[in-house]
Amino acid sequence: MAEQSALAVRDLGKRYRKVWALRDCTLSIPVGRTVALVGPNGAGKSTFMNMVVGLSKPTTGDIEIFGSRMRQDGPSLARVGFLAQDKPLYESFKVSEMLTFGRKLNPSWDQALAEDRLAKLNIPLDRKVKALSGGQQTQVALTLAVAKRPDLLVLDEPLADLDPLAREELLQNLGEVSADSGITVIFSSHIVEDLADTCDWLVVLNRGRVQLSGAIDDVLAGHRLLTGPDDHAGQVIADTDVIADRRRNGEAKLIVRTGASAVPEGWRVDPVALEPLVLGYLRRPESGRPAEQTTMSGGRA
Amino acid sequence: MTWLVLRQARAQIIFMGVLLAALGVLLLVTGLDAASYISAHSQRGACPGTGNACEEFQWALKARYQLVYMIIGILPMVAHVLVGAFWGGPMIAREVERGTAKLAWTQSITLRQWLSAKLGIAFLIVLIGGLVFSGMVSWWRNVVDQVYPVRFAAVDVFNVTGVSPAVWWTFMFALGAAAGAVFRRTLAALAVAVSVGLIVLPVFSFLRPFYADPVRSVTVDTDAFPRDLLMAGMWLPPTGKEVAQPTSPKCPLSLYADSVDPRYLQCLKGEGYRYVTYHHPSSRYWEFQWKEAALLGAMAVLLTGVTVARTRRLRAV
């Protein structure tokens, strides 16, 4: 409990007319983490992020950023940097004018950081925004969010619409940003493979609910891959909560929680990889309960 | 915020500036020319007046500056619509459409700061532009009006002088901005600003005579009040009860060419008939200007309330 939370949400919910886009969302993310927010399209990722950055008001629950309540006011907004999914910029502005925009509207703006960043990326300041490539526009938008010097950086699908090279570059870049400044970064994606190298915390959102939230090491340590004969799988399934269940040629591969039950005789136990684990959760929206998410970070290796 | 607002409205500000400058040059050149033309033809004694000499000179002047008259006549309509459609309309709508609202709203400023800067600065510029416009046109009108006075409530006088342009532009800006905030589409805001603007302008021309009760004047001269807004004309027989048409048996209309035949009017005068007008004297110009300003101003305030409420809702979604 001594660890301060960069982001703590309690019972967070958002209802659009009669449909709940997000419900009963409770999680806490320690300072300095790089968080991957994963979920299928329509899982509520954008809804969650919009509320965290103050673009949208929660229907239920509340949000705390570094211990103080998130409000739509100057001090709250200054602590959070945001990159929206469509990476909006003023198209008719020059890159340098976008930086002026950032400088004029943010008290903690770091002009040198912004200029260095763009220089490293070879993005000319006198070029108009609409003359830049998609990847460059994303980088300019990200630079705006970073040079604001936020404590929490929230990026909504920063990797979408980028070619593999630009994606690789951006991911590496994100790693540097969080390593250099120690800020907490949350970014969403529906592609799991991108995240393992860059992130150290995982949040799985599915059908508007949090399925999993924890340090990636803990999450991996908390699950095991069991391989054994197909015809004995039924017994394992009956005993424990199975996250993933793959059968092939009389062989069953089951992902289960560590320590949930004794390993049956003759079954092989392996560590689990992140991607199949996440996919397993996504396929079973009913798996994972709020009560377990909070303990997950406690380290059950 | 000021920097951002001015940068975002740069195209509109430049366009308005260039248009005002071009109009200023045109009015200055033709105004000076008109002044020397008027003094050279030394018709000042005859005009304004009802004599033939003055009338001929008026026509000559009007023909000479036909283009300027036309521009002054059309400009109010065009300028109102432009301000509403291309400045007010995109103000909120384009930000929502392009997603840049999300960018602005996640900087370290409140929605209140953002909205008040955007609306406040634009209103100020539009107001100043309208006053500059009316100042230039008023100067030009003053030059030619010594010869060719026009009814004060006519669209090409009332709507282009005084506070009217500034007030109209403010109203149209508020209309465009509200339409943009409600429909969240630049094109829809443009369509609303154009169509509502084109309806509201003639509606106000129609309403204008009713800003006050007309003055009743009894006269023998049917050509009086050239600069007034005439509402109705009646005949007052010696018997004392106003009638629309004289029924004097001594002056049957059938004997004359028409009802404005000078001999007919002369006959009626001889019978003791007097002419009654219900009119707004030109001294009511400012009273009418301010009344219209109050009406449009109140509507602009209401529309801006809609803009603020809708934008706040967008933020809460």
What do these coordinates show?
The complex is a heterodimer of chains A (301) and B (317). With 301 residues, chain A is α/β, with parallel strands linked by helices. Chain A has 10 helices and 14 strands. Chain A has helices at residues 45-52, 74-78, 95-105, 111-120, 134-147, 164-181, 216-221, 233-239, 274-283, 290-296; strands at 5-16, 19-30, 34-38, 60-65, 68-69, 80-83, 152-155, 184-189, 201-206, 209-215, 223-229, 242-248, 251-257, 268-271. In chain A, strand 1 and strand 2 form a beta hairpin. Residues 289-301 of chain A have low confidence and may be disordered. With 317 residues, chain B is mainly alpha-helical. Chain B has 11 helices and 3 strands; from the N terminus they run αααααααααββαβα. Chain B has helices at 2-8, 10-40, 52-64, 66-98, 100-105, 111-145, 155-158, 164-183, 186-207, 262-270, 285-316; strands at 215-219, 229-236, 274-280. Chain B is elongated, with a radius of gyration of 25 Å. The model of chain B has no long low-confidence stretch (mean pLDDT 88). The chains are: A alpha/beta (301), B mainly alpha (317). The interface between A and B is medium-sized, with 35 and 24 residues. Chain A: Keywords: ATP-binding, Nucleotide-binding, Transport. Chain A: It holds the Pfam family ABC_tran.
What integer value in Å does the Rg of chain B equal?
25 Å
Task: Spell the H/E element sequence of chain A.
Answer: EEEHEEHEHHHEHEEEHEHEEEHH
Relevant CATH superfamily of the largest domain in chain A:
P-loop containing nucleotide triphosphate hydrolases
Spatial sequence of strands, sheet with the most strands of chain A: 6-7-8-3-9-10
Q: Please give the share of residues in helix of chain B.
A: 55-70%
Looking across the biggest beta sheet of chain B, what order are the strands in? 1-3-2
What is the chain-wise order of helices and strands of chain B?
A: HHHHHHHHHEEHEH
CATH class of the largest domain in chain A: Alpha Beta
Main beta sheet strand tally, sense and closure of chain B: 3 strands, antiparallel
Low-confidence stretches of chain A: 289-301
Q: Quick one: how many beta strands of chain A?
A: 14
Might you state the CATH topology name of the largest domain in chain A? Answer: Rossmann fold
GO molecular function (chain A): ATP binding
InterPro entries (chain A): AAA+_ATPase, ABC_transporter-like_ATP-bd, ABC_Transporter_VariousFunc, P-loop_NTPase
Domain ABC transporter (chain A): 7-232
Protein name (chain A): ABC transporter ATP-binding protein
